[in-house]
Structures are given as C-alpha cells and as structure tokens.
Write a structure and sequence with these properties.
Elements: E1 2-7, H1 13-27, E2 31-36, H2 38-44, E3 50-52, E4 60-61, E5 64-65, H3 67-76, H4 78-95, E6 99-103, H5 106-114, E7 119-123, H6 127-130, H7 140-153, E8 159-163, E9 175-178, E10 196-200, H8 206-212, E11 219-223, E12 229-231, E13 234-237, H9 241-249, E14 254-256, H10 260-268, E15 273-275, H11 282-294, E16 297-299, H12 305-313, H13 315-322, H14 339-364
Parallel strand pairs: 1-2, 1-6, 2-3, 6-7, 7-8, 8-9, 10-11, 10-14, 11-13, 14-15, 15-16
Antiparallel strand pairs: 4-5, 12-13
Length: about 375
C-alpha cells in the first residue's frame, strides 16, 4: 500500500512512535511518505521520506500553557499554514496514497476525509475520545474541551489504534487499545541504579530547578535547557538520543513533565517517576493521574521542596510496584517488539486494505 503518514511535530513522542511503526510498515513492503513539522520533521527526515509542513504548536511558560502566546504564535503562522495546505494538495496528487495514517496531525487527516481515503488514527490521544476512563472530577471541563479538540484535529478516523497505560471499555468496534509503543533504542540500554535523578523539562521550568538546588545531597542530570553546564548539584546536558536514554537507564528516578513517551519508557525501565503535568494540558494531567493510580510514581501539583521530599521518601514503594509491571524490562522482553499493534496494522492493510475499507464503509454508514 502507498501510505501518507501525518505526524504531529509538537514534542518528541509522536515521531518516536512513528519511527517504530514506519520500520514495521516498510519491512512489510508498504511505500511510505511522512508529513510533519518542527520536532517531528527534524526527527524523521534524516531516516525516511518526509515532507515538511507548518503545524500547530503549544507555547508554555514555567510548565504552564500560555493561551495568549499560543494564540499569537498561531496568528503569525497563518500564511505559512495556508501555504502548507497548497503544498499538501500537491503531495497528495503526486504520491496518490491508498491509505492515510495520522498521529494527531490534522491536515493529512482532513485530506483523507476530503478524498475519501481510509484513515487510521494511531496515537495516545484517541483513548480520551473513544475509551471510557476515570479522571479527576475537578478537571471535567478540561476533559470535555480536550475531547472536542481531538474531534476537531482528526474528525472521522475509520479505525483508531490508541495506546494507553490503563485499559478501559471502548465506545465503538473500530477502536483498539494497546500498551505504549516503545522505541528500539530503549532496548540498547541496561537499567541500573546510579547516583543521579534524571530531570527533563520541555521548556524552562525555573521553579522546579530552584527547588532541586535545595537537595544538596542529591545529584540531578537536567535536560531541556539546551546547555552543557555544571551548577552545584545540577548537571545540565545538551540533548542526545542515546546519552539521554543512558542517563534515564542509570537513574534512581525520573523527575519530568508528564509526557506519554518518557513516562512509558520510565515504566519499561522500571524507574519511579515524579510527574509535573503541564497546567492547561489535560492529557498530561491524565497521564500523571494514571501513573499515581498504578503506584509507579507521584502526580505533583507544586514544584516545591515538600513535594520532592515526599517523593524521595516513597521511592522504595514505587520501585516495588514497578517490579510487577507486566511490560517492564524484567518481566516482558517482548514488550519492545510492539507485537500487538503491528499485528493489527498488518490485519488492516492486508489484501488491499480490505479490512480497513470495511471499517471505512461501516463508519460512513453510522448514523
């Protein structure tokens, strides 16, 4: 099959997941063209055919979504978005895809709908649209808004392949749930317990950094500030894929925002996790809620000394819970192969995507 694969460029998790799926799809004989932007394009284009477009971004300050800055950035980029629509039309005309896959990338999803091409959503966002799950009651408005945003981003997927930490009942027979997708690089590191805690932030989070300085007996390796510098008990590092993973694998714990991919890798490597979900981003709030429900770490509200003290005091309890995680390093060596979701993709695309087209027909006839 000829597949256009749209990938969100917001954060690194979407492209990490897409790389693993692309490797499987290409090995199965399919022809693939990625469409992405920002971090997604930077990550994918050195390894796969990839076209760059403009895409939506979320601007945050001190781990809080800035609605105003996000709005201003979006307005400034409107001309670029319009050029991307024109470019994407030409890409679809030239490549002539049989199928579209979207990892939370809206333009490719909308082109699929307009051209009546079978559409697969493959992400962790659609668990929030098509799975029944529990979440904090005080976030009910954020939850509702998030579900509407997901509906707007990828309006009518014919099949949804959703990754999730906690399984729940699905709302239709075209939604399938899977454990988190793990990238193969995670298999190249050996978990151990070194003398540091791994800290990762996606934008400057100065209040957290200030609190970490108070724990002079603890050592922290910090990623996300784009600098190489040692300052007291903080060792700031420039990002590198394997260097980062090696520091994760050798850490006592992970202290980070509540991104789905890093949390998944932390669980697999069986590292206690102190999550600081980004304020104003419900998905991260849900990730941190699930983490705490599983007993693998703490869902933190404030980046203060008390929060850190409590987390360090409970490390043995988190480690014990992680030792029983079904898809953890010591429990399931096959987890890295992502066998379940790859098998479902094979089923959907076999025989000229016969099964996928059946789902497309059923979705089109839903009332």
């Amino acid at each position: 099959m000829r597949i256009i694969y749209g990938v969100s460029g917001e954060g690194s998790g979407h492209s990490s997941r897409a790389k693993q799926m692309a490797t499987h799809l290409l090995a199965a004989g399919h022809e693939l063209l990625f469409v992405s932007y920002n971090r997604g394009y930077a990550s994918l284009h050195p390894h796969f055919p990839c076209q760059e477009i403009e895409g939506l971004r979320i601007i945050s300050v001190d781990n809080r979504v800035s609605v105003l800055r996000t709005f201003i950035h979006t307005i400034k980029k409107l001309p670029a978005y319009l050029r991307s629509v024109k470019a994407l039309r030409a890409i679809f005309n030239e490549f002539e895809p049989d199928v579209v896959i979207s990892d939370f990338e809206p333009m490719t999803a909308r082109f699929a709908g307009a051209r009546q091409l079978p559409l697969i959503s493959l992400d962790n966002q659609h668990r929030m649209r098509y799975m029944n799950y529990s979440s904090p009651k005080h976030l009910w408005m954020d939850r509702w808004i998030t579900e509407q945003v997901i509906r707007w981003m990828v309006p009518k997927p014919d099949v949804s392949l959703a990754t999730t930490f906690i399984m729940g009942p699905v709302k239709n027979d075209r939604t399938f749930l899977f454990p988190p997708i793990l990238r193969e690089e995670v298999g190249n590191v050996l978990p151990s317990e070194g003398g540091h805690h791994l800290v990762y932030v996606t934008s400057q989070y100065d209040s957290l950094i200030d609190s970490l300085r108070s724990f002079s007996d603890e050592q922290f390796i910090v990623y996300g500030y784009n600098k190489d510098e040692i300052s007291g008990n903080l060792h700031f590092k420039q990002f590198s894929t394997m260097g980062f993973l090696e520091d994760v694998a050798a850490s006592q714990s992970i202290i980070a925002t509540a991104g789905f991919t890093l949390m998944s890798e932390g669980m697999y490597l069986q590292k206690p996790y102190l999550a600081f979900p980004m304020h104003g981003q419900f998905e991260q709030q849900l990730n941190a809620y699930c983490l705490e429900e599983l007993g693998f770490g703490h869902n933190a509200r404030n980046a203060n000394e008390k929060t850190l003290q409590e987390f360090f005091a409970h490390l043995p309890l988190y480690k014990e819970a992680l030792s029983h995680y079904d898809n953890g390093y010591s429990n399931n060596p096959l987890a890295l192969k992502n066998l379940e979701i790859c098998a479902k993709l094979d089923e959907l695309l076999a025989d000229d995507a016969k099964r996928l087209r059946q789902f497309q027909h059923a979705r089109a006839n839903d009332k």
